[in-house]
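Ligand: MGD. Inputs:
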Amino acid sequence: MSYSQDGISRRTFLTTTTLGGLALAAGSVALPFGFSPLAAAVDASLSPDQDKVVWGACSVNCGSRCALRLHVRNDTVVQVETDNTGLDRYGDHQVRACLRGRSIRRRINHPDRLNYPMKRVGARGEGKFVRISWDEALNLVTDSLKNVVAQYGNEAVYINYTSGVVGGNITRSSPYASLVARLMNCYGGFLSHYGTYSTAQIACAMPYTYGSNEGNSTSDIVNSQLVVMFGNNPAETRMSGGGITYHLEQARERSQARMIVIDPRYTDTAAGREDEWIPIRPGTDAALVAALAWVMIDENLVDQAFLDRYCVGYDEKTLPDGAPANGHYKAYILGQGEDGIAKTPAWGSRITGIPQARIVTLAREIAGAKPAYICQGWGPQRQANGELTSRAIAMLAILTGNVGIHGGNSGARESTYTITIERMPVLENPVKTQISCFSWTDAIARGPEMTATRDGVRGKAKLDVPIKFIWNYAGNTIINQHSDINRTHDILQDDKQCEMIVVIENFMTSSAKYADILLPDLMTVEQEDIIPNDYAGNMGYLIFTQPATSAKFERKPIYWMMSEVAKRLRPEVHQRFTEGRSQSQWLQHLYAKMRARDADLPDYDALKAMGIYKRQDPDGHYVAYKAFREDPQANPLATPSGKIEIYSAQLATIAASWELQADEVISPLPVYASTFEGWDSPARTDYPLQLFGFHYKARTHSTYGNIDVLQAACRQEVWLNPLDAAARGIENGDPVRVFNARGEVRLEAKVTPRIMPGVSAMGQGAWHNADMAGNRIDRGGCVNVLTTQRPSPLAKGNPQHTNLVQIEKI
Ligand SMILES: Nc1nc2c(c(=O)[nH]1)N[C@H]1C(S)=C(S)[C@@H](COP(=O)(O)OP(=O)(O)OC[C@H]3O[C@@H](n4cnc5c(=O)[nH]c(N)nc54)[C@H](O)[C@@H]3O)O[C@H]1N2
Ligand SMILES: Nc1nc2c(c(=O)[nH]1)N[C@H]1C(S)=C(S)[C@@H](COP(=O)(O)OP(=O)(O)OC[C@H]3O[C@@H](n4cnc5c(=O)[nH]c(N)nc54)[C@H](O)[C@@H]3O)O[C@H]1N2
Ligand code: SF4
Ligand SMILES: [Mo]
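Predicted complex:
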């Protein structure tokens, strides 16, 4: 089996070194916001062997986390290498960075980096700023915060979802676990959110089935016969040498497990490594599962003993009291339930676009392979019916009894072993009200109209005040990563609605343009922190990062910024926020607590010298719901019945009591439901192509999106099947307009059989680039011009993969 990780890395490494550090300084241009070009040029008289090598890490939200060895000359990062520790053998392998991490020098030294605090002077979103002093910036932020809290209460202050430094600990940007949250919790609290843009639908839905949302470790595929991937693409989404793609490849090499990839695109994960690619219409996985279930029931292939012992609601025997007659799963599949439709292969084929005969053989193949690792990425659930889809995919694992055993899986995405770290404590939020992370634009525009049963407000029957103040630390979800950019622009333009937006960033991103106050942050590689692995199979690790260079210009660490705001709010707030510790004292304090819990960890100085510390999962491989499988009475699941709830009475109650629109379905069973802007929506007459934005190797969302070598290596293009292209007179590389009622994006077409007919896709995260005072046409290729702010029914999450568009040649 050939594998490209190493090849990619080496190629990038070569580009990095040959282009050299001076190219950047030479390429810098005068910029409108008061930037100065890169100051530090590399001293040519120093040679590489005089470099200082500093351990760093790539801390973006890609689901991997890589060690970096930054070569520093003259206080400037001149070259980037990656982990070189261990025996370089599976189990003691190197956590090698991908093409993005290896190009981090270009982010660090980028001529466009923010250098000074700035204040907006033009209309919001126009991007006009003037440089101000730190003192003025911090005073403006503090005064605004005090005013908003005095006038509207703490519920009017919102910390936006941001994931730019999800890998940090002290620097962590995750909104409910950041220093911004700690500051606000010292000052009366804030309106918080539930769910994430990553997993809103699956994280909400899966617990109704299992009580939680867990999968086996990918490394456990060493025990599998078959791997079935629904919309899961680790070759792009978990790219690190310590990440899931490496574990998948190594584990399969050992078990020789077959792999079936079910995805509208022929992904990089497939790309020659799969045994079969089954293209499927977006949003229809639940229909495929129902048809597979029909075949399994018809041919007596289901694991009836497992269903009887561990599950609720498969058939009449285990249907809970209060459920309607024939409300069970088997009746739904056989057409004896409410809809009266048998979910035959013919029925499933019409919806999914997969041939009937293939559905039949696939059912036999999945039922016949024991154990089978059935999993899903988060693409299928980022659809408008994603709550149903995620639970439906789990049904395949349940019907075949693959849950809770080695080599099997629950149908969820993989879990990982992690060395548990002591997080920077954020304290408790006195405000209990929450909105879904996707509904913040609504909370600005119509906050007090938002209710619990219609809009998913939690902790209260309705919101009392709209959002008036937004903290946005290390995120681009103000514009680029949130849906329907043109609508967001209209809401944010009016600075009487949301009065203050504070953005803490490294670059003038599209979100930063909407800041009222813009604060220049240091990067993680410029600070000291101890951070754990993210998704890494069964080998966990810690990375101890050191500042690669001194802080340049007036960039400051987030700990300093939040301490300074705390000081200006009230002395007690400052005392509570810092507890009298500096950033480095916090690090030592937290690490001492970790070692008190985990005596095997090296001491502080040893860890610092090592840079990276690795450890194998002492239990071998993580198996989700193993204890439950072994003894369901002694180890019940966290569901109300303690069993796997194929029929969820809780969901039946929600379905009966929430206000839903005609095209929204919440169901106690994991049924297939068509949805707004789906394959069979009436809107398809005007906008005939389904479109989604996949997570792309060129960037991590929008981060690294401004790096020239990455842009050149992985182009921003819209994928289109040759049949759809021919019908439109489009050839590979042609400039096209992709549009719907919400907006228009212009980019190049990639005409390829790697995407099924009727479906189009582009990498999500490209930098939005439109004249918002003019025609608003985006030339950056940003998919969120085309996505909707209408949330999914149950999670009120982001259905960012559910869109209809038309594509025309320009
Ligand atoms: N390089 C890179 N890696 C990343 C990220 C990144 O931006 N860049 N982002 C990170 C983050 S924060 C997250 S949350 C994860 C996201 O990880 P995922 O959500 O899993 O990634 P996606 O690319 O959105 O979707 C995975 C696959 O689902 C397919 N798909 C879309 N809709 C459907 C459907 O209805 N059915 C089926 N069967 N397949 C479908 C897509 O073609 C895609 O190949 O990735 C992480 N990793
Ligand atoms: N259409 C569509 N939209 C999507 C998705 C999709 O699949 N399709 N995926 C969604 C998902 S899963 C997610 S997680 C979100 C991600 O959305 P975001 O969390 O907004 O992720 P990024 O776009 O990477 O933005 C991170 C920002 O942090 C900044 N940053 C990086 N390092 C630092 C640092 O050290 N300090 C500071 N201050 N800033 C830093 C970067 O410059 C960047 O602007 O996007 C969502 N949006
Ligand atoms: S983007 Fe992800 S895989 Fe790539 S170097 Fe950074 S952490 Fe590693
Ligand atoms: Mo995400």
